[in-house]
Amino acid sequence: MLPSDLPAPAGALHRTDTAERGSFAVARCSCGWSGPARRSRERARSDARAHSPEGGTLPEG
Ligand SMILES: [Zn+2]
Question: What's the mean pLDDT in 4-16?
């Protein structure tokens, strides 16, 4: 099991963001979580929202 598969500790701040890797976009979180590489940033944002449905406030752009 990868460390990223572990549940985030209670009280951890979930500030999600997206990073670009070449032609891929990856969702990241301040808790250390990161999503799979996606071919579109929208998909990466969807991953971020799925990870952090409550604190998933992403900046537009
Ligand atoms: Zn998180």
Answer: 69
